[in-house]
Amino acid sequence: MSSDFEAYEQDFGTITADITNKIGRIPKLSGEEKTQLVLNVDKQLEEVRELLEQMDLEVREIPIQSRAMYNSRLKSYKQEMEKLEKDFKRSRIAYSDEVRNELLGDDAGSSENQLIKLREERAHLLDNTEKLERSSRRLEAGYQIAVETEQVGQEILANLHTDREKIQRARERLRETDANLGKSSRILTGMLRRIIQNRILVFILGAIILLTIILAIYFNLRGH
């Protein structure tokens, strides 16, 4: 996970350095070139916001013992992002005023108070728009986390169900094995009992035969 975070850090450093350079160039340009540069910076800022969201998600997956360090780094990147947005907002407001002045021409001087009011309203509108965008991105990130959590939960439940079935099958096999062992034990006990009975009978028959032989020899000797 930390390797992904560091990769995002590198992208963050590269893009923000380019944005800083472009924001500094905006006041020096004019016309279509300036317009294109403003649009380009706005697009890059959106890329940086997405990078910060990805970094935030990565930090949540980092082990707790290492998370504090990454949280601190992420916080500094967010502060840097806020500074870039403020710098860009100032340059964008100045650019909008410049365009408006070009359109109004000489009549702009007589409408200075209205322009100041419009500028304040525009700045306020931009702040609200950016706040809404940030809230929307946080909601999307939260929703994504919720979806991923639900998927993980479903996978865990599926695994538990599979494990339960395996355990039940193992128990059934154990019961069958135990029943077979009991049956085998009874068979072996019966065989052992018959073997002992046969040996006892053989011993008794042998004893009788031996006794008969001895008696026959005894009576034969007495007859002589």
UniProtKB/TrEMBL annotation:
GO molecular function annotations of the record: SNAP receptor activity; SNARE binding
Question: Where in this chain does the record put each T-SNARE coiled-coil homology domain?
Answer: 124-191
Protein keywords: Coiled coil, Membrane, Protein transport, Transmembrane, Transmembrane helix, Transport
Localization? Endomembrane system
Q: Which GO terms describe its biological process?
A: Golgi to vacuole transport; intra-Golgi vesicle-mediated transport; intracellular protein transport; macroautophagy; retrograde transport, endosome to Golgi; vesicle fusion with Golgi apparatus
Instruction: Spell out the SUPFAM superfamilies in the cross-references.
Output: SNARE fusion complex, t-snare proteins
Q: What is its main location?
A: membrane
In what way does this protein cross or attach to the membrane?
Single-pass type IV membrane protein
Q: Which residues form a coiled coil?
A: 34-180
User: Gene3D superfamilies recorded for this chain?
Assistant: 1.20.5.110, t-snare proteins
Q: Which GO terms describe its cellular component?
A: cytosol; endoplasmic reticulum membrane; ER to Golgi transport vesicle membrane; Golgi apparatus; late endosome membrane; SNARE complex
Q: What start and end residues bound the annotated signal peptide?
A: none
Report the transmembrane regions from the record: 200-221
> What family does the database annotate?
Belongs to the VTI1 family.
- What's the name of the protein? t-SNARE coiled-coil homology domain-containing protein
Q: Which gene encodes it?
A: VTI1A
